[in-house]
Amino acid sequence: MIRAKRLFSTDREGEVKHLVTGAAMKPKFLGGEAPEIKNESRREVLARWLTSSQNPYFGRNLANLIWAHFTGRGIIEPVDDMRISNPASNPELLGALAGKLIDYKYDFRKLVRDICASRTYQLSTRSNETNAGDDRNFSKAAIRRLRAEVLLDCVSEVTETPNKFPGLPRGARAVEIADGNTGNYFLTTFGRATRTTVCSCEVKVDPNLSQALHLLNGTTVQKKIEDGGVVKSLLKEKQTPEQVIENLYLRCFSRSPTEEEKGKLKEFLKDCSDPQPVLQDVFWSLLNAKEFVFNH
């Protein structure tokens, strides 16, 4: 910590002296060599080393965070626990990702493209005989609940109800909120980080009873369905109930309903003089379904 502080200093003051000899100690990189600093800022010297291939920490840490964001688990897990006694589950993979990130000059988008185009990212969540008990080696995709901001944005998108957050224009997305103190009951319930620390552990994605009750009985989902008027608009376009159901499934699940699902829903619409309340209930049930709330 003392050496890092000295490197960040832009002047020649604050030298740290050896406790025994009294000699001024040269600045030194963490676990590395002592750089030759001439007429330049120590901050510039440190910045060059941080993002260079000679630094074994920075690229690996960032690559691990990006990998965990898309797969649900870091190659080093937890992602904020980087230490010798917590080794990577796949050191070669982590090293390759870190190398790519350095080669890309820390352009996150290029590494994200590589990860999302990989076979590992595109694996199914369905297990088989060989990987049923594996939760460490990325042999199958992990089922994960959507993060609070993403879930609220998804509900707002499919119901066509723009949000209004303090300090942001109407229609801004929840993922754009920068202030950890800005939010609403939905975001708090679903574990949005307060950003009081830099630890990613602040983000909570584990499902709990409060979340289920809020989706079922809270005002967010039901009010957005009513305010957005999606079902009402589709019926005004002279769409049949079957066509409306098809539209709702495409909105929520990006797929058409199966024949079994169509058969069950037809029973609810049989002998129904006004299909709108029933179709709104269908919309509500889709937004509460695991297929909508979870990555799978």
Textual characterization of the structure:
- The chain has helices at 2-8, 42-50, 58-71, 91-103, 108-116, 148-159, 185-189, 209-217, 219-228, 230-236, 241-253, 259-269, 275-287, 290-293, and strands spanning 144-145, 294-295.
- It has 296 residues and is mainly α.
- It has a two-stranded antiparallel ribbon with strand order 1-2.
- The chain is elongated and about 95 Å long.
- Mean pLDDT is 87; it is low at 1-9.
What structural class is derived from the secondary structure elements? Answer: mainly alpha
What is the tally of beta strands? Answer: 2
Helix amount: 40-55%
Q: Outline, from the CA principal axes? A: elongated
Order of helices and strands: HHHHHEHHHHHHHHHE
Number of DSSP helical runs: 14
Spatial strand order of the main sheet: 1-2
Mean pLDDT: 87
The rounded Rg comes to 26 Å
Quaternary state reads single chain
Poorly predicted segments:
1-9
